[in-house]
Amino acid sequence: MPVKSLFLYHMSDNSIHPQNKRPGQGTIIAICFFAIAVLALYFGTPAGESWPVKCPLFQLTGWQCPLCGSQRAVHELLHGNIGSAWNYNPGLWISLPYFILWVIGNNIPGTRRFKIVGWAARDRVFFTAFALFMCWGVIRNFI
Predict the structure, then answer these.
(1) Spatial CA neighbour of 140 closest among 62, 85, 73, 79
(2) Spatial CA neighbour of 84 closest among 47, 57, 112
(3) What are the tens digits of pLDDT across the range 41-63?
(4) What is the rounded CA–CA span in Å between residue 92 and residue 74?
């Protein structure tokens, strides 16, 4: 009887196959974390001194990262202050639609058949968008 390699054994073992996981388990956990974050941003005050999550890059160097101001921007948006939300981090609002499409294309089966989602899910497009977002992080410190 031929000996199976450890890799082949695991690949043929049905108990660990990804299709045997409970459907939606990761999605439910992600939605719970998202809901908690939204509630914290709505009822909390990210601009206050007691807010527990501060940007480590800004704390160490004084430079704003591409996401600096995002917590305050979402807080303002949740309270209906669109102009203030834009002013805290315009790069976030410009790039957000693309990154939402990227998450959809990489996490929801069957969505890549839509042209815009399929385009957004490509690696080349992702790395280009990510590089532009990082450039925004540098440029915003000189504006």
Answers:
(1) 62
(2) 47
(3) 899 888 877 777 888 899 899 99
(4) 10
